[in-house]
Amino acid sequence: MNSLSRFAPSPTGLIHIGNARSAVLNWAYINNKKGNFILRIDDTDIERSKKEYEEKIKRDLSWLGISWNKSFNQSDRKKIYDQSIEKLKKDNRLYPCFESQEELSLKKKSQLTSGKPPIYDRSSLHLTEIEIKNLLLSGKKPHWRFKLENKTIEWNDLIKGKVSFESKNLSDPVLIREDETLLYHLPSVIDDIEEGVSEIIRGEDHISNTAFHIQIFEALNSAIPTFGHHPFLTDENGKAFGKRLGSLSIEKLRDTGFESLTILNYLLSVGTSSNISSETDVTKLINNYNISNISNSSPKFSIEVLKLLNKEILQKYTYSDVKNKFLDLRIHADNNFWIFVKNNINFFSECLEWHNIIKTEKPFYADDKEFLKDAANLLPKEPYTIDSWDEWIMEINKKTGKKGKDLFMPLRMALTGKAKGPELKFLLPLLTRNNIMKKLGVIA
C-alpha cells in the first residue's frame, strides 16, 4: 500500500510561515517516498471557519508548488463520525459527563492545593443509568470523555525518537462538547482511519494529543500511523507565529515578491543539520529531503536570511525560468537583459525599474559635461557586445587620463542615474548609439 500523509489546516485565518512549514515538511516527506498527499480542511469550528480562508489556504499552497491527491472538508463527514461515535459509546469508551466549567475548575484548584496532579477524577463514570437519565431530564447536557486504558502509551517518533506516556497521568480527553460539536481529536482520528493515512507529521504541540489518538485508533480497531513531531518555527524573539500575524502570512510574503522556491528551500532547510539550500529543481529538493535531519530545537525565522536566499535563487534562474515572469510585468526583455539584471535584484519586480532606466532617453546626470562629450565622441560603432565596454573605457582613458572611480562613476550616473548597479559591460548590448548619446546629453 502507498504511503499517505496529510496536512490539515483550519480555515480560521491566513496560512503563515509557521504552519506552512508543516505543510511543506509533510508534502516533501511523502513525495520523497512516492506516496500520496491529502489536504484536509478542519472546519468543524463553524463559528470561526470561513470559506474565504479555505480558498486562500488552497491558493497559497498551490503557489508554493504543493499539490494534493485529494481534498475534503470535515464539515461534510458527520455520518462517518457518527458511526464511530456509536461504536465508542457501545464499547463504553465514550462516557457522558455533566460537570460545568466552574465545577471542573474548582476540582482542579482543589487538586493543585492538595499537591495532586490536575487529572479528571472520573466521577461521572460512577453515575448510574437512572442518575444519567434524571440529569438529562433536568435539562443538563453532557460533554463526552474518552476513557483511557491504564497502560503505557509509546511510539517511535520520526523526529523525537522514543516517546512515552503513562495514561494514569493523563485526563480522559473531552471528545464531544455539550452542544454536540466535536473537538479536534475524534474527527481527526476517524478521517485518518477512513483515508488510510500512514504517516502523520505535525507540530510538537500535538505530542500529548498523539497519546490520546493512539488509544482512539486502538479502540476503533485500526492500525496506528507513524508519527513525527517537529519543533515550532518561531519569530526572531522566540515567539510562536499566529494566524493573524499578517506580515508573515504566505500571502504577504508572496505579495512582497518572494519566490515560491525561496520559501520551499527555506522551510525545508531551516531547523535542520544542513545549510540553507537554494535548489531550483523541485524534484532534487524533494529527493534530497531527509526528515531525520530536523533538529529538536525550535528554529528562528529570519526575514534577512530569506531575502538573501531570494537573491540567490534569482541568480540561479535561467532566462527560460523567468520568461513568463516578464510578461506578468508587461515588459519585453530578452536573455541579454536578464544577464544584466539578475545579479543585482532582491525581488524579480525590480526588473521593471531597470527596464525603465534602459528605455529612458534623457540625461540622468548633468555634471562633467566635457568628460561626457569626450566619451560620446569615443563611443564604438554598433552593434554593441559585452566587449564594447572595455573597448570604450580604454579609449576614454587614453583621451582624458581618467581611471577608476573618476572614469566609471560619471558614465554609470549618466547611463543609469544610479551610483551602484549591474556591470555596465552587460548594459551596452541593450542600448543603441542614439540612446547612449541622449543619456550622455550630447543630443536631445
Q: How is this structure best described in words?
A:
The protein is mainly α. It folds into three domains: 1-91 and 152-158 and 183-316, 3-Layer(aba) Sandwich (Rossmann fold); 92-151 and 159-176, Glutamyl-tRNA Synthetase, Domain 3 (Glutamyl-tRNA Synthetase, domain 3); 360-439, Arc Repressor Mutant, subunit A. Helices cover 43% and strands 11% of the residues. It is built from 18 helices and ten strands. It has helices spanning 17-32, 51-64, 78-90, 101-113, 129-137, 185-195, 207-219, 250-256, 260-269, 282-287, 303-316, 319-328, 335-341, 351-359, 369-377, 388-400, 405-416, 433-439, and strands at 4-7, 36-41, 70-73, 94-97, 143-146, 152-157, 161-166, 174-176, 199-203, 226-230. A three-stranded parallel β-sheet has the order 1-2-3, with helices on one face. The protein has a three-stranded antiparallel β-sheet with strand order 4-5-8. A two-stranded antiparallel sheet has the order 6-7. Helix 7 links the parallel strand 9 and strand 10. Helix 3 (78-90) packs across helix 6 (185-195), helix 6 packs across helix 7 (207-219) and helix 9 (260-269) packs across helix 11. The longest helix has 16 residues, at 17-32. The mean pLDDT is 93.
